[in-house]
Amino acid sequence: MQNILKIENLKKYYGTKNNITKAIDNISFTVNEGEFVAIMGASGSGKTTLGEYLKQIFDCNLFRMDDFFLRMEQRTPERLREVGGNVDYERFEETVLRSLLQKEQVCYQPFSCQEWGLVNYSATSYQSI
What we know:
The protein starts with a strand and ends in a 5-residue tail after the last strand. By secondary structure, the chain is an alpha+beta fold. The chain has helices at 47-58, 77-81, 89-101; strands at 3-16, 19-32, 106-108, 111-112, 117-118, 122-124. Strand 4 (111-112) and strand 5 form a beta hairpin.
């Protein structure tokens, strides 16, 4: 497969000389043609900063897993013990991944932490880089 993206030693710092936040600190990776990119990390690790950076450069789709938190009726002790168990990955696969693989518009209902449930549909056109 052909390399379509190569990032080397990317850094994104915020703040002033005496109070610097290293949102992204010296990361490198490549993406090959036909691959999807998933960014994982702890809270405050720079996921949103990196995602927004890539979206800006490539005018591509960006989906946030916060939109796919489990609904209350799905939150069982067993499910929450799983790695990534707070995410409704079944709904993400059904509404996002299947549409992307078919190069179709993506329509899904984001989860709202304020309302503790799904809200109005969001539609996103398919975009490839």
